[in-house]
Protein: RNA methyltransferase
Amino acid sequence: MSPQIRIVLVEPLYQGNVGSVTRSMENFGFDDLVLVNPCKLEGQARAMSCHARDLLESSQKVATLEEAIEGTDIVIATSGIAGIKTDQHIRMPAYTPSEIRNKFRESKGKIAFLFGREDNGFTREELKRCDMIMTIPTSEKYPIMNISHAATVTMYEMSNMEIGERPIADGFDLQLLYDHFEQVLADIKHPTHKMEKTSIMLKRIFGRAELTPREVQTLRGVLRDIQRQKK
Amino acid sequence: MSPQIRIVLVEPLYQGNVGSVTRSMENFGFDDLVLVNPCKLEGQARAMSCHARDLLESSQKVATLEEAIEGTDIVIATSGIAGIKTDQHIRMPAYTPSEIRNKFRESKGKIAFLFGREDNGFTREELKRCDMIMTIPTSEKYPIMNISHAATVTMYEMSNMEIGERPIADGFDLQLLYDHFEQVLADIKHPTHKMEKTSIMLKRIFGRAELTPREVQTLRGVLRDIQRQKK
Structure:
């Protein structure tokens, strides 16, 4: 079980950014995009959206933040400034994207991630509507990220995508390889008192390398060649 | 100890992407950028780089990949396609950014992260020069990310940035708050047989909420108000 995600851009100023965000949404498998009073979306937006043009066209355009978050359960504003002050008396602690992921990993429901205006972020009133603040850990010298970058990091954390299986050699074949190494060490008259340490070291090196089945095959071929040369 | 990072863009075609990458580098505190045969870098690159214009100007421009990776210890190519084939016979397993981070977390030395051409990625010869392949987990339907997005995710994982301390109430004050709750439950004649369960539930709710010192203060004020009303 993992939460559904809505991306909300609040009054984006640059159409290229909107296009970029849709591309990234398509990359990470999200399709719920709401734009609050967006800039014009024309050629530049379409160019940056690449293969996500359908998502750009189908995004919902609304006039107010209230409409944008309708139907969501948790509203999270992203900000480059940690621990933003929403009011004289209310200081909201900020969470990192990975903390947010861990908090909501098993949750049902829908989370709205809000990204503010490129120049002025959010108004105080808008921040008051949010349940949480998220901040991507960045350099103090220059904490303000491009909104499509911030959205990309957010979606990277929140998506459940996986890369394909890595073909890893199975333990039995690895053991045959390690045994083979020991035979070769004996064949080449590696000093007896170093044998055990060297075997262990080789095992560790190749263990760490996470060999593929084909790599094990090739290494064993090389060991056979060494043995053949010796005869 | 953590590794140094070099970002290498191989023949980038769009100057906006190069500018975007420099902005993101500045966000995450990296400054080693090498461009192999880049496109012209003019107004659009400067516009997207925002406050990272110095980094854009100071980036090293070279003619070959060999020059770009000089002085680095590990060369990692990023690719949208997991388990890319570099050759008929050599299939390289791909790692995710977080796997790469964990592998090299304690390493010294310098890692070059390579990002390929926007249209054609890397040549086979270029991939042969790489020690590892990194793939960001994405949708199979559309795995190809914008290079500045891919670079941003990479730097997000590899940077050691932190967000400021979250002001968390200390245990002693929390205990006072929980005791206060119990008093109030007694004052308002909450059924005795429910007391313990309700106390525990309140403790869990407020524990999960990671209260700030100010929030504890305010909650205790509210509890005092309840007690005052009762008298």
In short: The first strand of chain B starts at residue 4 and ends at 10. Chain B touches chain A through 47 residues (CB under 8 Å). The beta strands of chain B are 4-10, 33-36, 60-62, 74-78, 94-95, 110-115, 132-134. Chain B has a mean pLDDT of 90.
